[in-house]
């Protein structure tokens, strides 16, 4: 067999499958992925007080299989403090985008038993850990990824053990609780090791012999699932996210076949099987409430589907909860393409849930970027499987997340209205659009951070600032930051554009420019350039420099700068450069009224 025969694609496995691979198959598959198969590269450091060789191997393989080539630094065993406190350590020389702190509960036990005051151990431990985070953050621009702790098995106080702060298990529970509060407020990303251990069972997760012999924190059997969960955390910061769940109906959202059984006999509600689907719908509703879109792709008559959704007394989800309902007898790949076109999201933003192996296989072959997990024949296993696959990794929700369905429904209404007009400009004038200019502040930053982390298509440079890094930009006198909120007579689009500008001598450089794909073609691009030029003139700059760094997903904006009258000016490394002369710039008439919003959120009319 030649070398070419054994090289595999970086997408040979869908992300959900990685969690279910045996370790030897995960490592073998990872070794067969070459650098050319990965479109992106990420620098990662792993610091651990347990043996981390197998952990790093599993993490490396999982990242490769998800299209990211890892440049990984593995610190020596149990050198976390040394690496962080020494500014000349290998950690600082590596300059990782992510620094993973993989701390084991077994090593924590030794510190607990040596502590003189066990009542205060949890508080003191989190304080020391916070100090390490501060030191690391002051020396590196890195996102810290912190594992929490798997609760130990020991129960010296029986059922009262966790209530006793002086017990080790009680201290670990308190540390995990404190980490939730402290880490979330400081932008630290948490990996929920405890939930993984609880899912698979502590008796299997912990291997006492392996810890004593080789300082292995967990049985290697569970490393693929843990490594996949860690990559979920990393890639969520790099823009990967499931934004829409598309659902089959028969034996997926309810029990039975609507066309055969009729609406009265489908299983949903308080029957044994119906309760399974009721619980599944409640889980889907929770996803919808955090901002994930729901859609339907089903072989059924649409009128019958709508009747069940809106009239069946036991349905949790109603038609208003879905951004798209496609019910006909066309093939599901074609229907999914129609849903994707309507929502204008990348295929890798979709998960498709269908109980039928034939339908899953057909769609996988036609649309390989959509995640299509294999659902078991027993629907009672679906929630458990979804928990293991961790399909819906995300950041803390913003206020706009709860409004996302409404935004998309309004967009669909806009497109339907557009067909009534003879031309685009007539349609845009009828929308009566307005825009608010907002500075970065405590109200806008969560959504700004989310756009920066998740936007790929209309993202000129794909620089991924963390929320803490964005806060630092606010006080920089050489930087100008703003975002735009767009609204019209049909509703509010929310914050749809983010801009970071940097003054360099007589030039103003567009460091970051991101827009929501939902507003493409509404002259938001021209409006944003007009606002950038105003900032450039306020800085006394003569030119504005645009940078475009091509990626696998942002080809949609490769000609944006030339279209906006920027002139090509060569390249700088991987970035293509474009120049706009400030003195000769003239803004075209735009169908968008402007408002400036002050620090208190109060608007001021602008011309």
Notable features of this structure?
nine-stranded mixed sheet, Aminopeptidase, 607 residues, globular, 3 domains, 40% helix, Rossmann fold, five-stranded parallel sheet
Please outline what is shown here.
With about 600 residues, the chain is α/β, with parallel strands linked by helices. It has 25 helices and 18 strands. Helix content is about 40%, strand content about 20%.
What can you see in these coordinates?
By secondary structure, the protein is an alpha/beta fold. It is built from 25 helices and 18 strands. The strands form three sheets. It has a nine-stranded mixed sheet with strand order 15-16-14-13-12-11-10-17-18, sandwiched between helices. The protein has a five-stranded parallel sheet with strand order 2-1-3-4-5, sandwiched between helices. The protein has a four-stranded parallel sheet with strand order 8-7-6-9. It starts with a helix and ends with a strand.
Q: What's the average pLDDT?
A: 91
Which residues sit in consecutive blocks of at least 5 with pLDDT less than 50? 1-5, 601-607
Instruction: Supply the number of helical segments.
Output: 25
Considering DSSP H and I runs of 4 or more, what fraction of the residues is helical? 40-55%
Major sheet characteristics: 9 strands, mixed
Strand order of the largest sheet: 15-16-14-13-12-11-10-17-18
Strand content: 15-25%
- For the secondary structure, the number of strands is 18
The general outline is: globular
Kindly report how far apart the N and C termini lie.
Answer: 70 Å
Count of separate structural domains: 3
Query: What would CATH call the homologous superfamily of the largest domain?
Result: SGNH hydrolase
| CATH top level label of the largest domain | Alpha Beta
Rg calculated over all Cα atoms: 26 Å
What CATH architecture of the largest domain would you give? 3-Layer(aba) Sandwich
